[in-house]
Amino acid sequence: MNNLINKLYNEHNLSDDELIQIIETNELDNELHISADKIRREIYGDKVFIRGLIEFSNYCKNNCYYCGIRRDNKKAVRYRLSKEQILNCCKEGYSLGFRTFVLQSGEDPYYNDDLMIDIVSSIRHNHPDCAITLSLGEKTKESYKAFFDVGANRYLLRHETASPEHYRKLHPESMSLENRKQCLFNLKEIGYQVGSGFMVGSPFQTTENLIEDLRFLQKLKPDMIGIGPYITHEETPFSNQKSGSVELTLRLLSILRLMFPYVLLPATTALGTLHKQGRELGLKAGANVLMPNLSPVNVRKFYDIYDNKICTGEEAAQCKGCLEKRVSAAGYRIVVDRGDVEK
Ligand code: SAM
Ligand code: FES
Fold first, then answer.
1. Residue of the nearest CA to atom 3 in ligand 2?
2. CA separation for the pair 222, 220 (Å, rounded)
3. How much is the pLDDT for 342?
């Protein structure tokens, strides 16, 4: 085994210089993916956990320069799902074998704390054996606590980039990296299982930025890490920027698996969007989670955060069938399970 990979495999860490070497070459990729898959199989076997994603609103008060549903994209067709629609998505998901529901949206003040508490407690009541994951963006510690108290278990909030200079290039002045990071620590303190992460190949990203991301994750110690390639959306200020690469995303998935052996690591829809076999390649590189869409088909295409997003036309049942085939062809197995982190 290559010395660097051997060290990463045994010690789950490398120096900054060593990380630069491994991130900036594609020569080690094959061995890196094999080692990541080995460690993943030692802990999780061939299991792949599925999370049913419900994208319940694409209204957003923020204006991230990379995101297709940013406030200033006047061409976005906006929608909101009612509590009943969300509960129906969960019901259908449950019958298909989903035991985790992920409620994601833009930062939409319409869903105030009272409404979110009502939605979360109803899901908790209907599905006591399921995990409820929220991904609603930045909120106060009090709001996070209130959702936790009525049954939410997990929260996904990518830090996006751990570098203050890079963060400023991706977000307007009104947004703050410090606050985003504080939210993550607040969520952990409350008792949530926390997921963070970043986009790979976002505009102006350097290898040093990626190392800062890895170091931040080592500090945070999240249960889940979501990474996917940045993909250009034509109605954003970054319409002329290039999308990120599949190859670098796969390399980072393997590095993350080796650095955080127990972590829950999704092969993201963004990866599947840039490459026909992207999610399968992600699994082979160390990922162990898939997040198919449970949103009603008539709104799917409007949760348009980047161009050419896949899986916007299929019913949830079709998605599950398609994924089952893909996962077993790649040598893994989808399980009916909440898919908690193995610690
Ligand atoms: N509003 C919530 C938040 O801020 O965490 C959740 C919704 S937001 C659309 C979910 C994630 O989409 C972001 O954390 C970001 O990493 C990702 N995303 C946004 N625009 C993207 C793009 N153009 N390419 C790839 N991923 C993107
Ligand atoms: Fe708010 Fe993308 S700018 S979800």
1. 70
2. 6
3. 82
